[in-house]
Write a structure and sequence with these properties.
299 residues, alpha+beta, Phosphorylase Kinase, domain 1, D-amino Acid Aminotransferase, Chain A, domain 1, 2 domains, 6-stranded antiparallel β-sheet, 8 helices, 17 strands, 32% helix, globular
């Protein structure tokens, strides 16, 4: 499959002062936002200098699919991924820049972000496994004794986090979330997160993928709670091949675990200004896994 050139940063001079996240560039169109998913990749909350070819298209396509798939549970901010049609009808100033936008962009409704990272864990992995080995808990939630790495949990758990002052995610208890946003909204985003995860997990398993854990973000529009940002992508989730699943150790992965593992192996200090270039073989493996996940999950 031929991939488009790597896009690390959009350049649309007719739109001023875009917001730039770890992966997405966000432009204000007045009544809507234009979100462009670049090929940037982040790990350990830092943006790496090397892009992953085709990654932006994978994430954009996958999020659009999942937003539609779970709309019976909760609506999303997605308006359209037809950037060409939208530009011709509503924003002709974008037409000269469609080469940058094609296949990696969406128009969304503006929303008031709820400042909670809604993490759902269905399996014991990553930082959760490290904590469990020490204390028998994950994010302070007690779990049964005797679990091994990558075990499926008796039931999925909600383990929220927030942004600390240094910009890194910080795990917090559900009680802290209640104090931050109030009990009704805290319970709502918890219950929505678990419901979306369970529906997606059941579907993904029929396609040969285990969704071990994932994270969601929510916003509010006119009093309605909606999904925003991205959902259930290899960036925001751990995807494991079901056929190769063997609890008791790390799993093969469809996500950016190749990148994380390589960074750990080279002893990187996880500071933004020292982020290393990824070697070609790690880029190639990661690209392959993103494309494979897309082919399996999206009809």
């Amino acid at each position: 499959m031929e991939l488009a050139p790597v896009l690390l940063r959009t350049d649309i001079p007719v739109l001023q002062n875009p917001g730039r996240g770890k992966v997405r560039d966000i432009y204000d169109l007045g009544g809507h936002l234009l979100i462009v998913t670049t090929d940037r990749i982040s790990a350990f909350d830092c943006i790496l200098p090397t892009g992953i070819p085709g990654k932006g298209g994978v994430l954009n396509t996958m999020s659009a699919f999942w937003f539609e798939f779970v709309k019976d549970i909760v609506p999303s901010h997605l308006v359209t991924t037809d950037i060409h049609g939208f530009a011709k009808k509503f924003s002709p100033e974008l037409v000269p820049f469609l080469d940058q936008l094609k296949g990696r962009s969406m128009i969304v409704r503006k929303a008031q972000r709820i400042d909670v990272e809604c993490i759902v864990r269905g399996y014991l992995s990553g930082s959760g496994w490290k904590e469990y080995k020490k204390s028998g808990t994950v994010c302070g939630i007690p779990l049964p004794a005797g679990l091994v790495e990558s075990d499926r949990l008796p039931q999925a758990i909600f383990t929220p986090s927030t942004k600390a002052e240094n910009g890194h995610d910080e795990n917090v208890s559900f009680d802290i979330v209640v104090k931050m946003i109030g009990q009704p909204l805290a319970e709502k985003i918890r219950d929505l997160s678990l419901a979306v995860y369970e529906k997606a997990r059941a579907y993904a398993e029929t396609k040969g993928i285990i969704i071990a854990d994932t994270k969601f973000e929510f916003g509010e529009v006119d009093g309605q709670t909606i999904l925003i940002d991205e959902i259930l992508s290899p960036d925001s989730s751990r995807f494991w091949p079901k056929a190769l699943y063997r609890p008791g150790g790390p799993q093969m992965s469809f996500d950016k675990q190749y990148v994380r593992d390589w960074l750990e192996a080279v002893g990187w200090n996880k500071e933004q200004d020292t982020a290393p270039e990824l070697p070609p073989e790690i880029v190639a493996k990661t690209t392959e896994k993103y494309q494979e996940a897309l082919k399996l999950l999206v009809p």
